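#struct-pred

JT: dropping the chains for the assembly here, can someone run the whole complex?
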Amino acid sequence: MNLVIMRLTARSLLGRRRVVLLSLLPGVLLLVAAATRWGSDADPWATAHMLHNFAMSTILPLVCLIIGTGAIGPEIEDGSIVYLLAKPISRTTIALSKLVVAVTTALAMGAVPIALAGAVSGDWHWKLTLAYGVASALGAVAYTTVFFTLAILTRNAIISGLIYALLWEGVIGGYVPGVRVLSIRQWILAPAEEIAAPQASTWGVSSQVGLSTGLLLLVVTTILAAAFAARRLQTISVRGSE
Amino acid sequence: MAKENGGVIHDIGFRHYDGPRMGRPFVVRSLVADTLRGTFGIGRPGREKVTPWILFGIMMFPAFVMLIILIVGQQDELPTQYNQYLIDLQFVSALFVASRAPYALSRDLRDGVMPLYLSRPMTTRDYVAARFLGLTSGTTIFLVAPITLLLIGALLAELPAGEQLVHFLLAVVLAVILAILISAIGLAIACFTERRGIAMAGIVAALLLTNGLSGVFGQILDSRGETDLASYMVAFNPFGLVDGIGASLMGLTSGNDPRPPTTMIAGVILVAIYLGILAVCALLLGRRYRKVAAGA
Amino acid sequence: MSAITLTNVSRWFGNVVAANDVTMEIGPGITGLLGPNGAGKTTLISMMGGFLAPSAGTVLLDGVPTWRNPEIYRTVGIVPETEAAYDMMTGWQFVLANALLHELEYPETAATAAIEAVDMATAQGRAIGTYSKGMKQRIKMATSLVHQPSVLLLDEPFSGMDPRQRLHLMDLLRSLAADGKTILFSSHILEEVEVVADTIEVMVAGRHAASGDFRKIRRLMTERPHRYTVRSSDNRALAAAIIAEGSANAVSLAPDRVDVEASDFGSFVHALPRLAHKAKIRLLDVTPADESLESVFSYLVAR
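RK: done, full complex below.
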């Protein structure tokens, strides 16, 4: 880990426009949570419904996408990544330092507000807060790592990430059950289902994969993505802006 | 050749042009055409073509499957209504606008070429209008293409032609109304940043968060017994709003969740909201480009 | 003292060959990498800086490959072509961050010295986003000097500078070269290279077209006539003597000078003083009329 790189990354991640967009998302979520509490008299079922259909499906992937790609994409696009690469620091350190900052930011802007939204909206013995808190924390790590890697691989990272998160996991997953098994969203919901048990089915907290399968796929995907990111950064060709 | 104080201007063959000039309308028309072509990456390098055409493929695919089912399965009914199709695939069209609106505006802002546009006989208003028209027509094509495929399927399967045609045409009108709205929202967000990535994420957030919002609010109000108010929650979501206009004023069956209101008065209110959103977008674009024109 | 050695280096992108079998050695002093746009200058510098793998051949810095070897950045400083920097930071913060990334022992001192060297102390407190093109270029220079590298690679360093800044940067490069540093800069503008570079490497369409002292290169091209402008105490008599001697192709007499076109560089230069001495003519001025880099370059490009 390199503290200077981490500081630089945090600084550009929390630039003016991006931070507006970033704080808008959790803000809206908490607003919706408050409205859900008012509307449903703090019914855990409504909370689960809101978290499932709004927080986990839209807010979390969007927050992670903006942060994960924003941590390195713009620098690669305009060529200023050269200033980091032209230093006697291993590329793995550069990649991991940036990734750690991105994941931390995603936890703060994605996972924490989602857990908070669960508590605000109406819970039963903190079960939903914990279940979705854990799920969104795992999601923040996995989504951010995958989107970070995507930003190193392609200049069309944002749109590819959107197509994955919204179309693959959301729309196509709605029609083709096999697709659902290959979705980060289902993997992170597996522990949520476990934590929310035995009320999981009443509240509609469910995942398409078992707990061990989900966790295994999650860990493998995250580690592979991070390793791939570090590897790609070692052989990245920088030729300035076009 | 003019000679003065030992200085000389050489005649290197430039000729003066005295003929008619195409003028402002031509410039605007060219920019509309350029935007429309750019929306689908035509005349642009390969990597600009990837995104729009992948999205176009995804948008067409279900329609194509339905067409085959219709013809092979000898169905006597469309699997989905034309206007329903637009609602069902709203994520795809939202992504399309999110990726193409920044293309239309952010590039010019980032490269600092706005003064070049404005040095032609064209005003900022013309520029924005041309970009808007180009994007809107591109989005319209994007929306109408798959339902045209559905219509072809319906006609090949020998469903009642007149009825299908009426439904199709109403859905086309709805598609145009929708294209105008989402293009305007997309441009109003895209004009604020030079970074295409941020603009893209912002537009998706605006178009899809509103979908979630209207769904959640609608359900809550419904469960409290406020069915009437719940139906108005469609107005939060551009796609729901347009669907509501179709349901209340054109007599189409809604494909949205929550269900929109269906009375005539509700329709008028929804149209007013629709126009209100357009006005806000115009205002935002106008304010931003007044600054751009002033050289900020 | 460091040297970069390229041995049979080629780099292709798909079907396009950007560098074709290039062999060169860049040693201490200032070397100008010259060529028109698209000649492969940036590709070469990227490979030297370890940002691009050669498709064939080797790029070594003091015997060690530059590709996938971040350790070279302790000896190498790079001034990239890209305009983009961290716009929201101030010049001072940016240079200091670079010093910290190099893990220097006294980063503040190093940053101050680097900013002094490029004459940016007065503007160091402003955000980089507010800098002019020339100022950005200088702050980029400062980031690459902060760890006192023995090799400095500059891609188009003079672009966007006004004449005063240009002179200042040239002085800076000269003083660095005087310390024994190895400096390579690319340019497509000839007079810049001509003024500062000790040696030039000329790239044309990916090929290494020429290298060495540009005057020597010029002399190597004997098939091309060399022109001289000579002024003397008796131009008319001198013209007659040169024609009689026979080492010149053409001689033309202008009111205040003699223009001579010689096909063989060596024989004319050696013959001239002898002739003048014999005819008792005093030579006032002998100037090669087209010894400028411009003519060398246009000759190479046209060949």
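JT: nice. Chain B has one domain: 22-293. The beta strands of chain B are 2-4, 7-9.
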